[in-house]
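Hey, I'm writing a tutorial for new members on how sequence and structure tokens pair up, and I'd like a real worked example in the thread rather than a made-up one. If someone can provide the structure for the chain below, I'll link this post from the tutorial.
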Amino acid sequence: MINDINALQKKIKALELRVTIFENQLMRALELVSRDPSEPESTIVKCRVILEKIIKDIYSRIELEIPKKAIELGGLLNNNQFTRNLPSRIVVRMNSVREFGNLGAHDKGLVTKSDAIDCLKCMVEILEWYCHEFLGDEISQTVSGPETGGGLCGQSFKKKSENSFFQRYFKVVVPVSIVLIVAVGLLIFTALPESQKNAESRLNTTATQPATTTTPFSQFDQLLAQGVGREVQAVLKVAYSTKISEPTPSAAIAAMANQTSNPAKSWHLLKDGESLSSADNYRIMFCPEKTTFFYVVQIDSRGKLDWLFPANQITPFSVGMNPVPTGLWIQTPEGDAAFHLDENEGVEHLYVIATQSRWDDLEKALAKVGRTTIQSTHIQTAFNLKTRGAGGSRLVKATSLPETNIASSEVCRLITGKEGVLVWEKWFRHIAPNPK
């Protein structure tokens, strides 16, 4: 239970660095259940209050009118027009928080410390999804309460009629203007002499040439021959070949493995080419020098891509939220959990991608992968795309390092980038487990 509280504390701290949620009431809810004697009932009450305000805020954001009879949390959640706009896993978490609140309110039994911690876990997952879905990379601001008409993050929502006006403006006026501009441009272009058209065509071709690429496209084409689908190939192209005009983040990144078939090795740093079976466990850790956006993906031996970080609707077991604050260690999966492999043998790859700002193009490419079918193949050789943007490494002081028996000098080595994007690659061999 102590590990659960410590993990929650780190996640809540990261949330409140991103956006001050109801004047630190979420951290206050954790403190109530952490102290001795604990107050689990008070923790759950605070979670219900926060959830109700979040749900009302979402109603406003999706321009859905709150039902007149929905004066309580149950009425807000029983509206099908509302819940169909949310991922099913988030609706389940919201209903869980509501049910936890009913334990004490309706005298359904003693509320335990474990109940309060489970309620907080649901609440944190809801908030991570909320921030990712609605806030993007907005700047943290204090929440103004509902009494002042402010929304979460201190944003004042306009009335529905005002929103409708601007929506009509952008949906009607802007498209018409674009069509007129394009039409005028075509008329002007057709009136130009042929020589001038050719000159402008050459100019446009030059202007649209991609910026310097780090990895030749022929290398990406080779991935198709190995059984990688085009959508997964597109993700790697974006990650390795797009130049971003901003400073490259520096981060400490490590993958740990625990070979259960060889207990003497315990947890250790995973090396390229190492062999793991479905009986073994592994984790990924990273920590930025400055506030950074991270994207963690795994491509398995069938060419299937799992988007592990941050939490998203593509991969059900994804966790976490962006950006990651300065000096905060993130472990995925969290707490005492660990990843394990399926039964499909071959070569698997891990990628940790870091940028200073949210990378919309990469997120769009990842979303497309989530709608594709799995390749019927077995990847047998490493991609060898290597680490992009690494300008060197240096040892840094360990701060808030997750519990591990690995020496901090091995883990806390900061990779410094140089090309706007830092991409870290690790590959290993997926083998059959030893027969017992």
